[in-house]
Amino acid sequence: MAQTRALVLTGGESSRMGRHKPAIEVDGTSLVERVLLAAFAYRPVVVGRPDGVVSAPVIPDTEPGAGPVAGIATGLEHLGAELDDTDRLLVLAADLPLLTAHHLRRLVDAEADCVVTSSNGRLQWLCACWQVGLLRRQLAATPPAGRSVRSLAAGVAPLIVTDTDQVALDVDTPDDLQQLIERDPGESD
């Protein structure tokens, strides 16, 4: 029976924020821990920096600074024999603190080889679910360093899951963080 695992990426530069985003705490919980909580059912593994991570194993990025596709390749290599080509892998950014288990279940339950969240009219490639065999083939096609996740999906027609609840919004800037802090906590439940 196919399984689903989750990979949470924490290796970004956070240049627009000016500090390591995943470790930023809001109401006593780091942004990355909020993502890990939403992904709990999928036994998440973190790839990148350990700052702010308390509830999941962390794998150091084998190519720090090489971008998210390199982080995905590191995570998939680490999970290796644990995953069959028919299994699924949630690929999540650590700066999506409003994610819910319900939204992730929608991605996992969608019947497609690649499922991507659409948030505010744009594709959120770091809130997606991939069939492992497809992801392995796409990673093998070209070296991962410096590639965008959108380029990883070249030639793939993903199923789009609309983020009607606005839970897949990233926190990239100090203004985004302020909006998160001011947001009514009842909206993200």
Automatic annotation (TrEMBL):
Per UniProt, the keywords (alphabetical) are: Cytoplasm, GTP-binding, Magnesium, Metal-binding, Molybdenum cofactor biosynthesis, Nucleotide-binding, Transferase
| Gene3D superfamilies to which the protein is assigned, alphabetical | Spore Coat Polysaccharide Biosynthesis Protein SpsA, Chain A
Q: Does the keyword Transmembrane helix apply?
A: no
The source's superkingdom equals Bacteria
Matching entries from InterPro entries are given as: MobA-like_NTP_Trfase, Molybde_CF_guanTrfase, Nucleotide-diphossugar_trans
What Pfam families does the annotation carry? NTP_transf_3 (PF12804)
The UniProt record lists the keyword Nucleotide-binding: yes
Please cite one Gene Ontology biological process associated with this protein.
Mo-molybdopterin cofactor biosynthetic process
Q: Which GO terms describe its molecular function?
A: GTP binding; metal ion binding; nucleotidyltransferase activity
Domain MobA-like NTP transferase, first and last residues per copy: 6-142
Q: By what name is this protein known? A: Molybdopterin-guanine dinucleotide biosynthesis protein A
